[in-house]
Amino acid sequence: MTERVDLSTVTPPVALGPLDGRYRRVVAPLVNHLSEAALNRARLHVEVEWLIHLTDTGVLPGAPRLSEADKGYLRDVVDVFGAGDELEELAAIERETLHDVKAVEYFLKRRLDAAPAVLGEGTVLPQVHEIVHIFCTSEDINNLSYALTVKSAVEDVWLPAASAMADDVAALAKEHAGAAMLARTHGQPATPTTLGKELAVLAHRLRRQLRRVAGTEYLGKINGATGTFGAHTVSVPGADWEAVARGFVEHLGLTWNPLTTQIESHDWQAELYSDVARFNRVLHNLATDVWTYISLGYFHQRLSAQGSTGSSTMPHKVNPIRFENAEANLEISCALLDTLAATLVTSRLQRDLTDSSTQRNIGVAFGHSLLAVDNVRRGLAGLDVDGAALARDLDGNWEVLGEAVQQAMRAASIAGATGMEDPYERLKELTRGKKVDGPAMREFIGGLGLPDDVEARLLDLEPGTYTGLAEQLVGHLDD
């Protein structure tokens, strides 16, 4: 038997997972924020800014002040990271250090040594080796780097995409605010609503979760090995280290956490991931509802201009694959986000490393959610409402007016009308388990002895007009 090609050796490398393979195009924007390379760039950014912060504040006796050219050079190290062979260089250093943050420290020190070739011999950067990473444990760098990368991923990529999708749902709700539709509670015909109102419910729920995500507080700390500023106060006892730390964390655009162990407690991450998971679950509800409306014929799916294959054997089919794909990816995303939220809040005593491995999956969790959002947007964009199907379903279920008749009888009785006894039982006898058409319902209403105005109002009622304030309620999307 001929030996097969070892796919693990193929160039370019074959992706192990779908996010970096089949679906790369959709989730690629997250690479700039939540990949290993993006994390290392953020670490480099934190190290550079800490060096600048310490020299700017003059907190270290004898430390030189950096010129604007020096600072520009350092920040450019971060800005160009990844443009050349920096990723491979850093990887080579890490193969020697066997420590990711230490590798970043050494990488930066190499750039300090190379500064005179760019800035001239007058630069002080080669002299500040010992300020790089001073008073820092690796978690001081990591917690700030993760906060920065997650914040930028949410605010620059995930939140805009999710918000645009929620806006699409809201727009569809407004467009069909008055489209009467038979409701189904427990899967059975129930009091009519409108298609727009049902979509508005989902848009409203999605937007509420998005507001929670948008309000996330991203915390950070830089206080040493056990969160006590121990080395700081021994080495430079005259400094206000709390003020220095707070100023630095806020300079990065984060919220300072004054009380930590060696790690920032990750509670903000758990809160964020729970909110995103809840958004995912509401979106999953939308996907399954729209799938059901498609199966009922309320929605028709448009064929793409390029054509599509619904089934490999049944050419008549146009499958709701966008919504099914979204369901699957939302479930995977929620599983990861739930794990992140549950595990990141716990660290044994002052530090263990379980969070280090767990956090490497943040990008995967957001990637599957982003992919689902994209699929729902594309699925919604290909839908047309079949008004005739909505009308047929309503006209085939006149028994749903039983609720309106019963409640009108109760109200009439309270207002003093006689002969309105046992309205529930009388409607139950007429409608339960039975199909009732318009003539039968009107005949029943006419025999109840209702006050003339109530009877006239009920006789004018049809399933398609029995939608209450549904159309009006859609307006709350603009509240």
In short:
The protein is built from 21 helices and 6 strands. With 479 residues, the protein is mainly alpha-helical. It folds into 3 domains: 104 residues, Orthogonal Bundle (Fumarase C, Chain B, domain 1); 212 residues, Fumarase/aspartase (Central domain) (Fumarase C, Chain A, domain 2, Up-down Bundle); 70 residues, Fumarase/aspartase (C-terminal domain) (Ribonucleotide Reductase Protein R1, domain 1).
Can you offer a commentary on this structure?
With 479 residues, this protein is mainly α. It has three domains: 28-131, Fumarase C, Chain B, domain 1 (Orthogonal Bundle); 139-224 and 254-305 and 315-388, Fumarase C, Chain A, domain 2; 396-465, Orthogonal Bundle (Ribonucleotide Reductase Protein R1, domain 1), CATH 1.10.40.30. The chain is built from 21 helices and six strands. The chain has a two-stranded antiparallel sheet. Strands 3-4 form a two-stranded parallel sheet. The protein has a two-stranded antiparallel sheet with strand order 5-6. Strand 1 (180-185) and strand 2 (188-194) form a beta hairpin. Helix 13 runs antiparallel to helix 15 (362-381). The longest helix is centred in the N-terminal third of the chain and has 38 residues, at 138-175. The radius of gyration is 31 Å and the shape is elongated. The model has no long low-confidence stretch (mean pLDDT 94).
